[in-house]
Specification:
Layout (H helix, E strand, L loop, with lengths): L3 E5 L25 H10 L2 E8 L10 H17 L4 E7 L16 H10 L7 E4 L2 H9 L3 E4 L7 H10 L3
Parallel strand pairs: 1-2, 1-4, 2-3, 4-5
């Protein structure tokens, strides 16, 4: 049986985009209405998967351990609020220092998630705040939804769940 999923970018969608790398806990702030929005997806049986570029690792600005600590915080916060994030996938590369196929707009991280969780791309969405998120979605036949950075996802959540309510 195939599952449907909501793929989410991290910075600007899960946490507020600050215009600089977000890797320290004191710079991290969840986007407004996030829990309420994600609960709508959970209620309608969507798996939630975060897909993020974390090029600060490749540039040496921060380490894998810094990202893992922040991601543990996200997962703990979500769990406390009754939300299961199936996985957080991230690309640590920076285009100035290496060439890879996991950095969005390439689609390797989406492909991994689709295979691992048996996701039906035609019934799934990628919500992001950059054109590269939508492009990565297009490459794997997932519907890409472009939203403004740091905006509430409530309206998008309502549209998605109502379009599949029948």
């Amino acid at each position: 049986m195939l599952h449907k999923a909501i793929f989410l970018d991290r910075d600007g969608i899960i946490n507020k985009e600050r215009g600089a790398y977000t890797w320290q806990m004191n710079d991290f702030e969840f986007v407004d209405d996030l829990v309420k929005s994600l609960r709508k997806f959970i209620k309608h049986d969507y798996k939630l998967i975060i897909i993020s570029n974390q090029s600060g690792i490749g540039k040496g600005v921060y380490q894998f351990a810094d990202v893992e600590l922040l991601h543990a915080h996200i997962l703990r916060y979500m769990r406390i609020n009754g939300i299961e994030i199936a996985e957080i996938y991230y690309c640590p590369h920076h285009p100035d220092t290496s060439r890879c196929i996991c950095r969005k707009p390439d689609s390797q991280l989406l492909e991994k998630a689709i295979a691992r969780f048996q996701i039906d791309p035609a019934a799934s969405y990628f919500i992001g705040d950059r054109e590269r998120d939508v492009e990565a979605a297009r490459r794997v036949h997932v519907k890409g939804i472009l939203v403004a950075s740091n905006s509430s996802l409530l309206e998008v959540a309502d549209k998605i769940v109502h379009s599949h309510a029948n």
